[in-house]
Write a structure and sequence with these properties.
The chain is α/β, with parallel strands linked by helices. The chain is about 40% helix and about 15% strand. It has a 7-stranded mixed sheet, with helices on both faces. A 4-stranded antiparallel sheet has the order 9-10-13-12. Helix 4 (about 65-75) runs antiparallel to helix 13, helix 6 crosses helix 12 (about 255-265) and helix 14 runs parallel beside helix 16. The protein is globular. It binds pyridoxal-5'-phosphate.
């Protein structure tokens, strides 16, 4: 099954017809909100903007693909039983991705909580009813590397477990005891930790402890969807509303059949559980599936070339201003897309990067970027096609204006 899926992708990416389909808006996004009816944001006095920042939760992540929106609207018109929908969608996701089992969660954060809950409870609903306040009869510790400890381990603590932080393989092996429920890994920090994939998985297998990998922001490349379950992680979590361009409040939990079944015990519609507040509605469950299907089948090479050319366009436009320097790079893991940092000689261009970002935000149309004191940072993968030209022009204008004395 794994092989046929990969062959399928290979075939799809070499089909000229498909390549041709992804020329205009299809490759990035549809134009937002232009349904010809009510302008809801305007009615509310809200600012919309060009997203030159990336997949940021506070900026509402991504725009769903047209295909995902279509599935969302379809589901909005017809009832279906939530568990039956999750069963079928899970099966289809597992088939598409080539893992044992899958389920749609309420974000990667919720995938972490539900996945751990499943590890703790197995198939016992009575245990599920006691998470997080009484873990009697369950294991109660999760081990992770200090360098992997960012705010998201709160998702583990929501199950009532104790977090044990280690740095070396020796410390990891020593920390494992009869209370160890799971080993947790933050994919984006693989290269920052002293224990990387191979050794981590070896230890997990040696002691027979389930391992979870948080890959929330880690497509592209598309292969990452199956890379880490193939590598030996028992559970893998993705965000639905980042590179996959599904609903922002969705995520994927992928992995071993019995662990996904266990996780579902703590998920809605079941009420007396830690996951009851992590409901995913039928519209989002279906839209998530279709987002994944669309993502796997898109022309990834063409998409990369588009992002690359957009980034170069903005970079070249900025470089027309005397004193500007640009840096084009691709982060190794997480937000692995062409990215641009624009900086300048502030004795020539009298504006700070933060002031420039504010000026971009205050303009019409408003443009959101990221960065700090040193640079204005831009990606184009979350933009609508064509918006890169507006961004290129505005960046140059603002820097030009600030270089006049
Ligand atoms: C975004 C992110 C999350 C949270 O994902 P949601 O889908 O918003 O719940 C968790 N872990 C990492 C590393 C992330 O980047």
């Amino acid at each position: 099954m794994l092989v046929s899926r990969r062959d399928l992708i290979k075939q799809l990416s070499t089909l000229p017809l498909l390549g041709g389909m992804f020329t205009a808006g299809a490759i990035t996004q549809r134009m937002p909100g232009l349904t010809g009816r009510r302008d809801y944001y305007k009615e509310l006095g809200l600012r919309n903007f060009i997203n030159a920042a990336g997949t940021y939760t506070a900026l509402t992540g991504c725009l769903m693909t047209e295909e995902a929106v279509e599935a969302y609207n379809y589901a909005a018109g017809q009832y279906v039983a939530l568990d039956e929908l999750q069963d079928k969608v899970g099966e289809r996701l597992a088939e598409l991705i080539g893992c044992e089992a899958a389920t749609v969660t309420c974000g990667a954060f919720s995938a972490i909580t539900l996945g751990l809950a499943g590890v703790l409870t197995g198939d016992d609903p009575k245990k599920a009813a006691r998470i997080p306040y009484d873990l009697t009869g369950m294991k109660s510790e999760v081990i992770l590397q200090k360098s992997h400890s960012i705010g998201y381990s709160h998702a583990l603590k929501n199950c009532g477990v104790k977090i044990i932080e280690v740095e070396t393989v020796g410390e990891l092996e020593n920390a494992i005891n009869e209370n160890t429920a799971m080993l947790w890994f933050l994919n984006a920090h693989n290269f920052r930790g002293k224990i990387q994939y191979k050794e981590f998985i070896e230890v997990g297998k040696k002691f027979n402890i389930p391992m979870m990998n948080d890959c929330a922001a880690d497509v592209p490349p598309v292969e990452n969807l199956w890379k880490y379950t193939d590598m030996g992680f028992d559970l893998v979590c993705f965000s639905g509303g980042k590179g996959l361009r599904g609903p922002q409040s969705c995520g994927l939990l992928l992995g071993k059949k019995e662990l996904i079944r266990g996780a579902r015990l703590s998920a809605p519609p079941r009420g007396d559980t830690v996951g009851r507040g992590m409901k995913v509605n039928k519209e989002e469950v279906l839209a998530m599936l279709i987002a994944v299907e669309t993502y796997i089948n898109r022309d990834h090479d063409a998409e990369w070339k588009l992002w690359d050319s957009q980034i170069k366009l903005i970079s070249n436009s900025a470089l027309e201003v005397d004193g500007v320097e640009t840096d084009i790079h691709v982060p190794e893991i997480a937000n692995h897309v062409p990215s641009l940092n624009i900086s300048w000689d502030q004795s020539k261009i009298k504006i700070t990067p933060n002031e420039a970002r504010q000026a971009l935000r205050a303009g019409h149309p408003s443009i959101e970027t990221v960065g700090g004191d040193k640079s204005v940072n831009i990606t184009t993968w979350m933009m609508n096609a064509g918006e890169e030209r507006i961004v290129a022009r505005r960046v140059k204008e603002i820097l030009m204006e600030s270089s006049k004395t």
